[in-house]
Specification:
Distance between the termini: 73 Å
Order of helices and strands: HEEEEHEHHHHHEHEHHHHEHEHE
Strand content: 5-15%
Radius of gyration: 41 Å
Number of strands: 10
Helix content: 40-55%
Oligomer: single chain
Number of helices: 14
Length: 425
């Protein structure tokens, strides 16, 4: 019986050894795996603002199965662009190509953005203004010194005996001062006089006063009438301007309706002059490219940490005010504040203590916090109810400004917020 334990251990050695070797093989293969897309660490740097990102004759296939074929579409700044279509038509694939998670088989993704750091330009401008201020200050000091010197010279001349004509009059030839006349004292009778009673107005004066009062009344009446007329004219002008603006918008909508599909697509692409400034994202430094983009995937990855830390993944240096503002835009703040520890509430591994909609809203909050020029949203409201969807879409509309927001969704309600919609087949 003493050898029973070692024999059992020896018999199980082969199974444990095989499992250990298989695990080690998987780890080694993972470490030796080459990335599908090699990061560009020495290419062109791009900075905000991004004016346009567009595809040019883009084609891509999964293991020989075509997904995108000769695609040329644009995403200009200041627009919310929707991408709608059935599953498997390449909507999510296009977002990954814009992020350069993969490279296109043919064609290219191009971007128009600043090639110089705007913060550097602002610093140079501030330095230039400081130099000008210092120069003007030096000139002012020089002028003041010259004025001081001239004043000192004048003072020295006066001390040397240059007398004014008044001085000559005040002294006599033998050096004695001339006599001065003294004012006679005023009368001692300083008692106040009683006011005289007003003289009665004559008939003519009364008539003139009445006529003046009547003229003033007429003047005030005319001023009121003129003010009313001016207000009426201003209101009429506002109505006319609103009517013209509505007519222009209606004409614009009608023109868009008359536009062919190709014309609509071309209207979102940059012109030939701007295309010359564009860069293929393969030539752009990967870190620089990703700093200009925020990507919300269908599945939000949650770490075993606090809610605040999970939101800060998008911007580790963010303040709590920025985190709370992003959470409010993502319709998440009220839920977080209802928790016992608020933003310091720990979430489980992979966010197992949160619902699918709550995890999704954390991902959207990250996008708001990142504040990138290009925001890519892949089915951002698929797990949300109508109320939270409406709040998030309203926030997207308000923060669009000069950003480019691209939304992939099956929901018609989500597509309603888009300025333009591409329909994939």
């Amino acid at each position: 019986m003493s050898s029973f334990g070692p024999v059992i251990a020896l018999s199980n050695l082969s199974n444990n050894l095989n499992q250990t070797l298989a695990s080690a093989e998987r780890v080694i293969s993972l470490l030796e795996e080459a990335p599908v897309v090699k990061e560009n660490t020495s290419g062109q740097k791009l900075y905000p603002k991004v004016e346009n990102i567009y595809t040019e004759n883009l084609s891509f296939a999964y293991e020989g199965e075509p997904v995108l074929n000769d695609l040329t579409i644009g995403f200009p700044e200041g627009r919310i662009i929707g991408i709608h279509g059935p599953s498997g038509c390449g909507k999510s694939t296009l977002l990954k190509l814009l992020m350069r998670f993969w490279d296109a088989d043919s064609g290219s993704v191009r971007m128009i953005a600043n090639e110089t750091d705007p913060t550097t330009l602002e610093k140079e401008k501030a330095d230039s203004q400081e130099e000008k201020a210092d120069s003007s200050k030096k000139d002012g000091n020089t002028d003041s010194k010259e004025n001081t010197v001239s004043e000192n010279k004048i003072s020295a001349n006066n001390k040397a005996g240059n007398k004014t004509p008044s001085d000559n009059k005040s002294t006599s030839g033998n050096g004695s001062k001339s006599d001065t006349t003294t004012a006679e004292p005023e009368s001692a009778d300083d008692t106040p006089k009683e006011p005289e009673p007003p003289k009665p107005m004559s008939a003519i004066e009364m008539l003139k006063a009445m006529q003046a009062a009547e003229k003033e009344k007429i003047r005030v009446q005319k001023e009121r009438e003129n003010a009313f007329l001016e207000k009426s004219r201003a209101l009429a002008r506002q109505k006319e301007e609103a009517r013209k603006k509505a007519a222009v918008e209606a004409e614009k909508i009608e023109k868009q309706k008359r536009m062919t599909l190709k014309e609509r697509i071309d209207s979102l692409l940059p012109n030939a002059e701007d295309k010359e400034r564009s860069k293929d994202i393969k030539e752009v430094r990967t870190k620089s490219l990703r700093s200009l983009e925020a990507y919300v995937t269908q599945d939000t990855y949650i770490f075993h940490d606090t809610i605040a830390a999970n939101i800060k993944v998008a911007k580790p240096s963010a303040t709590m005010e920025e985190v709370e503002d992003a959470a409010k835009k993502a319709s998440l703040h009220e839920f977080i504040m209802s928790l016992p520890d608020g933003y310091n509430t720990k979430v489980g591994e992979l966010g197992d203590t949160l619902s699918g909609g709550e995890r999704q809203r954390i991902g959207i909050a990250r996008a708001f916090l990142n504040d990138a020029d290009i925001v890519l949203l892949d089915e951002p409201t698929s797990n949300l109810d109508s109320l939270n969807e409406g709040i998030i879409l309203k926030s997207l509309k308000e923060t669009a400004g000069d950003k480019t927001i691209i939304i992939v969704s099956h929901r018609d309600s989500t597509m309603a917020v888009a300025d333009n919609v591409y329909s994939f087949e």
